[in-house]
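Protocol step 4 of 5: obtain the predicted structure for the target chain.
Materials: sequence only (see below). No template structures provided, no constraints applied. The aim of this step is simply to have a reference model before the mutagenesis design in step 5. Sequence pasted as it appears in the construct record:
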Amino acid sequence: MTITRLQSLHDLGSLCAGNLEVIIASRPEEIELSQRLRYRVFFEEMGAHATPEIAASKRDMDAFDDVCDHLLVVEYQEDGGVKVVGTYRLLRSESMKKIGRFYSDSEYDISAIRRYQGEIMEVGRSCVDPAFRNRSVMQLLWRGIGAYVSRFNIALMFGCASFVGTDPKEHAMALSYLHHYHLAPEALRAVALKERFIDMNLMPKEQVDAKRAFVSLPPLIKGYIRLSGYVGLGAVIDPEYNTTDVGIVVKTDLVTEKYAQRYKTSDNS
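Step 4 output (structure tokens):
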């Protein structure tokens, strides 16, 4: 199968590293490759619970896939084949109107984020093939996000990020660290829905070893924090995906400064 970048509004320019490239999926079969990677990571590796339909198809899929943009890192192989080794799902406000809600609405009250003056974008379903969890792939994903943010003038990105497992006590220090040191200001704060609210304040601040807690964070959450990201109030248990979720919000200033400006392409649309 040959994969090509979209030459349209979604074109991010040439973002490559060796035989790896960042693209936006432009055809159903490309989205399917992303869904198959997500299935391998979320269901086979992380222990998510598949419905009969998902188990039979071996694809992680839902209604949001039809309205989101799918950012892919692909590997061009010597035999001419192409493998999707990293993926991110992106949902801008304009596209959200087609489905009427963000994915985060099922876990958080995001009213404050919706009121933000500027273009907002939800990010989610991020994963990387286990054999490609190296700096090159992660950098390409962030470069792709940076280029996309710049391309569509995104001012704020948000979403749900996860710890593996459904027992918050296993992540008591990390969750407490995020609550004490990185809680979003009220104007940007997502709040876990009342019926799903799990208190992240599991340890007093003076008992939290901030350095050790930061090191223990999942790589994706660590990346958001490095970009001066914030977390919402309260965590949420997602039994279907076997995760403990936190709400994330990031102003894109640092994303565009660090990634998009360097790789920005001219607007020929």
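Step 4 remarks: Strands lie at 16-17, 20-24, 69-76, 82-92, 108-109, 119-128, 154-164, 191-192, 230-238, 243-251. The first strand starts at residue 16 and ends at 17.
Proceed to step 5.
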